[in-house]
C-alpha cells in the first residue's frame, strides 16, 4: 500500500507514470451505461499497467463514475467524496477522480474542492485517463470534459469483473438527441452516435467463447441505432443488428435497453417474435399518461400513440412483458394529469416500473423554461399512489406465473443461500430455486411455486417443457 505520493525512481523531479500508481479502485453510480463505461475505463487503465482493487484502503487512485439524472443521485456522490477526502487525509498522495455524467455537468466546479478532487473526466474522455492521472500525480488538477461526435470506444474490450460471468452489457451507441425537457443526458453524454456493427458482433463472439450466456445491448434509445458506411448509405438499423447478434448462437440470450416509444417499430417487434433467444421483455418508458404533460416533456408521442404501441407489442409478441419509467409531479402537472397516469398504468398493465419524483435539473429545457411548481408533498403523495398501484400490478403479474414452467438462466448463487440459484426468465423476472446439480450459466426449467414482492420462487422441473 502506498503511504505517500510515489516518486519516479530514476528522476525524482519528474512526475510518476500511471503504472507506478499501482492500484485503482472504482465505484459506479447511475445506469447500465455507466456500468459498461467503468469497464471501458478499467480496460484503458489496465493496458497502462494499473491493477484493479476492490479495497479502497489499498487504492492509489480512487475513481467515482457518477450520475446526474436526479438531484439525489448527485447528493450521493457528494457524500462519497467526503469519504474519499478522509481516505486522502489518511494516505496523502491518493488521487481522486470524478468521472461520468456529473463530471460533465459540473466540470470545473468539482475541482473547486481542491482538497478532494484531482481529476474530472467526462464520458468521452476515458482514453485520456492515464494522462490525467499522470498530470494529477505531479500535483496539478487535471480535467477533460470534451464531448465527441465520434467516440464509441469501439475498439476497447471492456474488462468485466462483475458479479457473474454469465451476463454482460454491450454498449452499441452513445449519447442522445432526444432532448426530453427534464433530462440531463443529452448534455452530459452529447450527440447520439452508433458503434460499428463489426466491433459489436466481435465483442459478443468473444463473450460467447468465454462462456457468457446473455448480452444486453445498451443505448439511451436503441431504436435509433443506425450504422452508415463511409459513403453515407445506411447499412444497418437496430432490428437488423439485434437479429445478427441473436444468430451468433441459439444458446445466447439477447436483451436490449432502452426503447423510446416514439420509434419502436413493428420491424423490431417482428424480429423479437421471430427469434426464440431474443428475450420477450420490452422496457418502454412512458413517463406520464397525460398527452399535455408528454408534450411539455418533449416526448414526441401521445397517450394514444403510446397505447397503440403497447397493443402492437401484445399482438405481435404474445405474452411479452412490458416495463416502464414514470415521473410524478412534472411542471404544471394537475390532479387530472396525474389521474391520467394512474389510468394509463392500469390500461397498460405494466409488469414492473421504475418510479420517480420529478427532480429539476439546471440547464435542461424544463429547468430553464418551466416552473417546478408541484409542491413536494403533492409529488410525494402522487408518487406513492403510483407505487401502490404498480406494486399491486407487479404482484398480479407474478401471481399469473404460479404453476407455470419457465426456462431460467441461472446467473449466480442467491444472496441468501449457497444452496439456491438466482436467475431470470426471458420475461426479465427474477427467480430463485434450489441449486440441485445446476450451476450459474445453466438454463434450468423452473416451475413457479410462489413469489415475494420482487422475486419468483420455484423448483427445477425436469419432465415438463417450459412455456417460455
Ligand atoms: N434513455 C432512457 C432513460 C434515461 S434516464 C429513456 O429515454 O427511456 C432513466 C429514467 O430516469 C427516465 O426514463 C426518467 O423516468 C427518469 N428521469 C430522467 N430525468 C429525470 C428527472 N429530471 N427527474 C426525475 N426523473 C427523471
Ligand atoms: Fe433522456 Fe429522453 Fe434521451 Fe432518455 S430519450 S436519455 S429520457 S433525453
Ligand atoms: Fe446514466 Fe445517470 Fe448519466 S442515468 S446516462 S449515468 S445521468
Description:
The protein has about 475 residues and is of the alpha/beta class. It has four domains: about 20-145, 3-Layer(aba) Sandwich (Rossmann fold); about 165-280, Transcription Regulator spoIIAA (2-Layer Sandwich); about 285-395, Transcription Regulator spoIIAA; about 405-460, OB fold (Dihydrolipoamide Acetyltransferase, E2P) (Beta Barrel), CATH 2.40.50.140. Helix content is about 35%, strand content about 20%. It has 14 helices and 21 strands. Helix 8 (about 240-245) packs parallel to helix 9 and helix 12 (about 335-350) runs parallel beside helix 14 (about 375-400). Residues about 1-5 and about 5-15 have low confidence and may be disordered. Iron/sulfur cluster binds near residues 179, 180, 186 and 220.
Short description:
This protein is an alpha/beta fold and 468 residues long. The protein folds into four domains: 18-144, Methylthiotransferase, N-terminal domain (Rossmann fold); 163-279, Transcription Regulator spoIIAA; 286-396, Transcription Regulator spoIIAA (2-Layer Sandwich); 405-460, OB fold (Dihydrolipoamide Acetyltransferase, E2P) (Beta Barrel).
SSE topology sketch:
Elements: E1 23-28, H1 32-47, E2 51-52, E3 61-66, H2 71-90, E4 95-100, H3 101-106, H4 108-111, E5 119-121, H5 129-137, E6 142-144, E7 167-171, E8 173-174, H6 185-189, E9 193-194, H7 197-209, E10 214-218, E11 226-228, E12 234-237, H8 238-246, E13 253-257, H9 266-274, E14 281-283, H10 291-296, H11 303-316, E15 321-328, H12 335-348, E16 352-357, H13 365-369, H14 376-399, E17 405-413, E18 420-424, E19 430-434, E20 443-451, E21 456-460
Parallel strand pairs: 1-2, 1-3, 3-4, 4-5, 5-6, 7-10, 10-13, 14-15, 15-16, 19-21
Antiparallel strand pairs: 8-9, 11-12, 17-18, 17-20, 18-19, 20-21
The structure holds S-adenosyl-L-homocysteine, iron/sulfur cluster (SF4) and FE3-S4 cluster.
Amino acid at each position: 500500500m502506498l503511504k505517500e505520493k510515489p516518486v519516479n525512481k530514476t528522476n525524482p523531479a519528474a512526475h510518476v507514470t500511471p503504472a507506478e500508481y499501482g492500484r485503482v479502485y472504482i465505484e459506479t453510480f447511475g445506469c447500465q451505461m455507466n456500468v459498461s463505461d467503468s469497464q471501458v475505463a478499467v480496460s484503458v487503465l489496465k493496458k497502462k499497467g494499473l491493477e484493479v482493487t476492490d479495497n479502497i484502503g489499498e487504492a492509489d487512485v480512487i475513481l467515482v463514475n457518477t450520475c446526474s439524472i436526479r438531484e439525489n443521485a448527485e447528493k450521493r456522490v457528494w457524500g462519497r467524496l467526503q469519504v474519499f477526502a478522509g481516505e486522502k487525509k489518511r494516505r496523502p498522495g491518493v488521487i481522486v477522480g470524478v468521472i461520468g455524467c456529473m463530471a460533465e455537468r459540473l466540470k470545473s466546479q468539482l475541482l473547486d474542492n481542491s482538497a478532494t478532487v484531482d481529476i474530472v473526466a467526462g464520458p468521452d474522455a476515458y482514453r485520456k485517463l492515464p494522462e490525467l492521472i499522470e498530470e494529477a500525480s505531479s500535483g496539478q488538477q487535471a480535467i477533460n470534459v470534451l464531448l465527441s461526435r465520434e467516440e464509441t470506444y469501439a475498439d476497447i474490450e471492456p474488462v468485466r469483473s462483475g458479479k457473474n460471468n454469465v451476463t454482460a452489457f454491450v454498449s452499441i451507441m452513445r449519447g442522445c438527441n432526444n432532448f426530453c425537457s427534464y433530462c440531463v443526458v443529452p448534455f452530459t453524454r452529447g450527440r447520439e452516435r452508433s458503434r460499428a456493427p463489426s466491433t459489436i458482433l466481435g465483442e459478443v463472439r468473444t463473450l460467447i467463447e468465454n462462456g457468457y450466456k446473455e448480452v444486453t445491448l445498451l443505448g439511451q434509445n436503441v431504436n435509433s441505432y443506425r450504422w452508415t458506411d463511409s459513403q453515407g448509405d445506411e447499412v444497418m438499423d437496430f432490428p437488423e443488428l439485434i437479429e445478427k447478434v441473436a444468430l451468433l448462437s441459439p444458446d445466447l440470450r439477447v436483451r436490449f435497453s432502452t426503447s423510446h416509444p416514439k420509434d419502436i417499430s413493428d420491424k423490431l417487434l417482428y424480429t423479437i417474435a421471430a427469434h426464440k433467444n431474443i428475450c420477450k421483455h420490452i422496457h418502454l418508458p412512458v413517463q406520464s399518461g397525460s398527452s399535455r404533460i408528454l408534450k411539455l416533456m418533449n416526448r414526441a408521442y401521445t397517450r394514444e400513440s403510446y397505447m397503440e404501441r403497447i397493443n402492437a407489442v401484445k399482438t405481435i409478441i404474445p405474452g411479452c412483458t412490458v416495463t416502464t419509467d414514470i415521473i410524478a409531479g412534472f411542471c404544471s402537472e394537475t390532479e387530472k394529469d396525474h389521474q391520467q397516469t394512474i389510468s394509463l398504468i392500469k390500461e397498460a398493465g405494466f409488469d414492473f416500473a421504475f418510479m420517480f419524483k420529478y427532480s429539476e435539473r439546471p440547464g435542461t429545457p424544463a429547468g430553464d423554461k418551466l416552473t417546478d411548481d408541484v409542491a413536494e408533498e403533492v409529488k410525494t403523495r402522487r408518487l406513492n399512489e403510483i407505487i401502490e398501484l404498480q406494486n399491486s400490478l407487479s404482484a398480479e403479474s407474478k401471481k399469473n406465473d404460479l404453476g407455470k414452467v419457465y426456462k431460467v438462466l441461472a446467473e449466480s448463487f442467491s444472496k441468501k443461500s449457497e444452496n439456491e440459484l438466482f436467475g431470470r426468465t426471458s420475461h426479465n423476472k427474477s427467480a430463485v430455486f434450489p441449486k440441485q446439480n445446476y450451476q450459474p450459466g445453466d438454463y434450468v426449467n423452473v416451475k413457479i411455486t410462489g413469489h415475494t414482492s420482487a422475486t419468483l420462487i420455484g423448483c427445477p422441473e425436469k419432465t415438463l417443457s417450459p412455456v417460455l
